[in-house]
Automatic annotation (TrEMBL), chain A:
<feature type="transmembrane region" description="Helical">
    <location>
        <begin position="291"/>
        <end position="312"/>
    </location>
</feature>
<keyword id="KW-0812">Transmembrane</keyword>
<keyword id="KW-1133">Transmembrane helix</keyword>
<keyword id="KW-0472">Membrane</keyword>
<protein>
    <recommendedName>
        <fullName>Primosomal protein N' (Replication factor Y)-superfamily II helicase</fullName>
    </recommendedName>
</protein>
From TrEMBL, chain B:
<keyword id="KW-0472">Membrane</keyword>
<keyword id="KW-1133">Transmembrane helix</keyword>
<feature type="transmembrane region" description="Helical">
    <location>
        <begin position="300"/>
        <end position="323"/>
    </location>
</feature>
<protein>
    <recommendedName>
        <fullName>Double zinc ribbon</fullName>
    </recommendedName>
</protein>
<keyword id="KW-0812">Transmembrane</keyword>
């Protein structure tokens, strides 16, 4: 149904609620909205474009609002000892459950690598030492030494399930912090899954996302190569990866977003909850006073120990 | 699962068959959607309504499906398909129960010098059960990158590093999914299976035959097959590609293509016999009487006698050495 369009600009879209007729303004980066008067959920389907393709997949929400809020409260209260006290006592405010756009990237990675491989061997060597009576004696011991051998070769593998955020509002690092998502529960996208929820359109260009996905993939390959190296140890690992057979699909991921306002003069902290697994992540503000106290305390302790040591020597 | 559900179409990238309900290729991750979505040409706004009461529907995390907030009706959605594995084909028994019984006697007689002398005469057959055990059989093409240490080219250390890439063709590789047979038992009788004799129904055994069922879901089955491919590729790399005779740290990375997995039920006889109040078990391939595996008693007296003889020879040798010095 392509009706009820009152007005549209490149940034905002003005629509009429199909239930009560109220005029609603929809931000350009949103795919769905709720009428503030009658709570009717509207879904917007825009013609796809290269930077705004239609979603291919979706992971549905499993964690509900109540559970997410409880998890965030526990997470905030249980943050590490250097967290600010006002942060620990703050009440998280829910912004919304949102379907976050992300790209699911898969590729074949062909890597040329070279490294020095350490192969250990043992040798018996003689050494001189003084025994308990103060005499110089010669003894033998077994020592482990490493023989370094060059190795170069090719490594070819599939790299699956690299997820990168396509939203300007959530950095890729923030998304990584609440990963993994169980992609076995991936569903074919349908409008009905986002009905009543906020769903974002991609706000990063596909080129940007490709670049992010490449970087993440190459980092993954690096981690694989470290495990792939034979020998007892390795060093100077260098590699060059070519990615081919790349596929990128838009997927909507369930995220609960919370804001924690802990001080008047500080911006609120964004906390994300994985809407499928309940995993929480966010940047905890560190208390400068607590860190200073800790440093001073450690220095004092070292000073006291040093004085005690001097006293004992004296 | 019936055959029409399998190999409905192949992945466009790695050419492995996709199965019913697959949204992505399990091997290479390529999206495998039938293009059911209509590409919008114009902007459209819609409210999804309950077909029962007309109220708006919203997605409900409790049901993991869209539901009507007014009448509670849950909208049926495409379910996430992870069915239990099911046998597609059975291999028939070509060995009869009498032949299996006779084979057991022959096997007991051939247990070597340490077997009790009366083993064949005194062993009482207590059970002979035909069993169709379950297994995956797969074909695949693999491009394998490997790296390993071997003794070839070693210097001061016993080991030297090597690397390479090779193609491996897997044809009719059998991976046991059985809980009834141990991995050793399944491996011992697997070479006797003639996969060309597959049938739609179990044939060639009594009605009281045990039909084992797969007890894993498709996703776990894929993991098990994938682990088996990795294991076999590692073995093949050692046997055929890595230079040297001793190996360690064998690592492989695999790019698979055309992985076709079949779910089969394979015939075996499970026999139990009693010898002096102890139960022993033997498994015989249901298609090749020569392939059997099992446990049998050892004669304690013979073992003690051998130990004494070895000890006596050792003592004698020491005495000769002492006399010589």
């Amino acid at each position: 149904m392509a009706t009820d369009l009152a007005n549209s600009t490149s940034d905002q879209l003005e629509i009429s609620c199909q239930s009560c007729g109220a005029r609603l303004v929809l931000e350009a980066h949103l795919r769905s909205t709720l009428c503030p008067y009658c709570a009717s959920p509207s879904i917007v389907s825009r013609p796809p474009s290269p930077n705004r393709p239609s979603p291919t997949f979706l992971v549905g929400f499993v964690v509900d609002h109540e559970h997410a809020t409880k998890t965030v409260k526990n997470w905030v209260a249980g943050s590490h000892i250097f967290a600010r006290s006002d942060f620990k006592a703050a009440v998280p405010e829910l912004t919304r459950g949102v379907y976050l756009p992300a790209y699911l990237y898969v590729a074949v990675a062909n890597t040329r690598y070279s490294a020095s491989i350490g192969e250990n061997y043992t040798e018996t060597e003689t050494y001189t030492t003084t025994d308990s009576k103060g005499k110089t004696v010669t003894r033998t011991r077994t020592v482990t030494k490493t023989e370094w051998r060059p190795l170069s070769g090719n490594h070819c593998c599939y790299v699956l399930d690299v997820l990168v955020s396509a939203s300007q509002g959530v950095t890729n690092a923030a998304l990584e912090a609440v990963e993994p998502f169980d992609l076995r529960a991936l569903r074919r996208y349908a409008d009905s899954f986002i009905s009543g929820w906020l769903a974002e359109e991609p706000s990063r260009t596909q080129d940007d996302c490709f670049r992010l996905a490449h970087d993440e993939t190459i980092a993954k390959v690096g981690a694989m190569l470290k495990n792939f190296m034979p020998g007892d140890s390795h060093s100077n690992l260098e590699y060059q990866t070519d990615l081919s057979h790349e596929v990128i699909d838009l997927v909507l991921l369930p995220i609960w977003t919370y804001a924690v306002r802990y001080a008047e003069d500080r911006p609120p902290i964004q906390i994300l909850v994985n809407g499928q697994t309940g995993r929480v992540a966010g940047k905890v503000p560190v208390s400068a006073a607590k860190v200073t106290f800790a440093v001073v305390g450690v220095l004092l302790l070292i000073g006291i120990l040093f004085l005690l040591f001097l006293a004992a020597q004296g | 699962m019936n055959e029409t559900q399998i190999a409905e179409f192949n992945c466009t990238r790695c050419e492995s068959p996709l199965e019913s309900g697959d949204l992505r290729c399990a091997i290479c991750g390529q999206a495998a959607l039938n293009d059911q979505t209509v590409q919008r040409k114009k902007l459209a706004i819609q409210i999804l309504r309950c077909t029962g009461c007309g109220a708006a529907i919203t997605y409900d995390p409790k049901h993991q499906a869209p539901a009507c907030s007014f009448c509670g009706d849950v909208v049926k959605v495409e379910s996430i398909d992870d069915p239990m594995e099911q046998t597609e084909h059975y291999l028939p028994f070509t060995v009869t129960a009498d032949e299996a019984r006779a084979a057991l006697r022959g096997w007991l007689d051939s247990r070597g010098w340490f077997r009790p002398s009366d083993l064949s005469a005194s062993a009482q057959l207590t059970q002979l059960k035909p069993l169709w055990w379950v297994a995956w059989v797969f074909d695949a093409e693999a491009f394998v990158s490997w790296a390993a240490d071997s003794n070839e080219g070693s210097g001061r250390s016993d080991w030297a590093p090597h690397s390479g890439q090779n193609n491996i063709q897997f044809d009719d590789i059998l991976v046991s999914a059985s809980r009834g047979l141990s991995l050793n038992e399944a491996a011992a009788i697997s070479p006797g299976m003639n996969l060309a004799t597959k049938r739609k129904t179990p044939e060639g055994a009594d009605r009281d035959a045990t039909l084992e069922r797969f007890d894993v879901q498709r996703s776990q089955a894929r993991q098990e097959v994938s682990a088996a491919i990795h294991r076999i590729a590692t073995q093949r790399a050692q046997q055929h590609f890595i230079p040297g005779t001793r190996f360690r740290n064998v690592k492989v990375a695999i790019v698979l293509r055309r992985l076709v997995t079949r779910r089969m039920s394979l015939p075996a006889y499970v026999l139990a016999y009693r010898y002096k109040d102890q139960l022993y078990r033997v498994v015989i391939c249901g298609q090749d009487i020569r392939l059997m595996v099992g446990t049998s008693p050892k004669s304690l007296i013979k073992m003690i006698a051998v130990a004494l003889v070895v000890a006596a020879i050792g003592m004698l040798f020491l005495l000769i050495l002492a006399a010589g010095s």
